[in-house]
Amino acid sequence: MTATLQQKPRASAPDRTILLVLFFIVTSAFLLVSHNGDLLGQMGPVGTALKNPIVEALMVSLFLANILFAYLWKAAPWARALVGVGSLLFVLPAAGREDTSLLDLSIQIMIFAALALGLNIVVGLAGLLDLGYVAFFAVGAYTWGIVGSPRFAEILKYFGENPGGTNAGTLAIGLVLTAVTAASMLYISRLTARTAPTAATTWSFRLASVGVVAGVILTVRALLVLLAPQADGLANGLNAGFFWLFLALSIFAAAAVGVLIGLPVLKLKGDYLAIITLGLGEVIRVLANNLDLYSAGSQGITPIKSASVPWFDAAAGALGFAPDQYYLLFLYALVLVMIGLILTVNVRLDRSRIGRAWIAIRDDEVAAQAMGVPLMQTKLIAFATGASFAGVMGMIFAAKQQFISPESFVLNQSIAILSMVILGGMGSFPGVILGAAVVTLLNLRILPGLGEATANISWIPQQANPGQLQRLIFGAILVAMMLLRPEGLLPNRRRQLELHHDDNQEDESAQGNAGALGTATGDVYSAGYAPAKEDDKAGGSR
């Protein structure tokens, strides 16, 4: 008797479209109501329930799930576009107008999503375990934080009082040295790409890199001395219009630091690379803590300017936003654009020859090198690309917070970003964005809300209050996730097959004589391939 297995019918595309739109409408309504303080005050007990931190965190999580469903479900294209555009461009800003913390949370999620996308290139694609990634984030933040704040005037005053022998000639020497050594590095790099590197080319490249650093230092010092007479006019830092220039400079600064860090360490791999990148990340933090003249040490830098866009401010005012919300709405729009650009760059790189080279290095360095992949150059490109994403997000983070200090760039931040990549799925771009959203919501909304909601419950001991055990709960979630779904929430197909390779193997032992393994005699062979007797032809031929 043969049993017929019947599969549960799946929802059709029209049904999924209707369900997606309905879910979007319902969760949008709940989000807008739960963040409108005046309306909640008129709703009595229902409003009190919606103010509960756990309920509020649940509403935010369900609303953000709209974007996930729009990506996963095979609904009509217009419905998916409606949900994505409506959620990001209309509903979230409207709710953020009533509750600024929601707008701040959205920016924070997108900043960490961009950081996770950058680290995904280094770890997920190239297979280089980097535990000091937050160092590049710090470089971008301090690049703008120093010049976009009153700290810049303090630096100019110091160099005006201590110029030494620096003058216009020093500036010329610095510019020439930087240009010559940078051109030399480019020439040596192209030369070694065609032929095998020798000891002479290796040491020449290292010497040229030292020359670039020296040239940049001389150039910057000369500029500071020459600008010193303008210190009083720059008491609040550079004009906010320079924000756009430094947005580009933060990318190049972080990429340059990524190359300089990568040059001496990328010959290592595995655990050794992880330890040395961890140490270099701590070096950047300690430097920020001790270079008081530039970073103000542990006191931090404040206030830091954001870009001033008059037409955008006028549009925000017309939409009902308060003047103190203009900069947040602007940064929200800017981060949204940057996420789109970073995601586009990631997808194009993944499908390019460089992306395939990264994957080859991750799978087997020896085989990749044997196939002609230049290991050092390819790894440096991965480091520099990931660092550039972190640099631009660091600058936006500094403008959003209006304050930075070394405590913002501790080791735990690097570990948190790495956990976003692993939790979402290494090598998967939608996965790491989802991982960033989940981890950020857990750390900033769900776990703090759970602790706040249970703080006054008498039967829960203070030592067992979830507010005191946030790190324990978060750690338990990560452990459970790695045990139950090690490939991540939205895994890359290649990564999923690697982790479940044994599960995908078919058992064909019944077709051969594998039973001979348990007896003293008999030949072991696979049916149709190996001969049963010595005189038989291979492959099952007659």
UniProtKB/TrEMBL annotation:
Membrane topology: Multi-pass membrane protein
UniProt-recorded name of the protein: Inner-membrane translocator
Family matches, as CDD domains: TM_PBP1_LivM_like
Localization per Swiss-Prot or TrEMBL: Cell membrane
TM region positions: 17-34, 54-73, 78-95, 107-126, 131-148, 168-188, 208-229, 241-263, 270-288, 326-347, 380-399, 415-442
InterPro entries xrefs: ABC_transp_permease, LivM-like
Classification via Pfam families: BPD_transp_2 (PF02653)
Oxidoreductase keyword on record: no
Assigned keywords, A-Z: Cell membrane, Membrane, Transmembrane, Transmembrane helix
Keyword Metal-binding: no
Signal peptide region: none
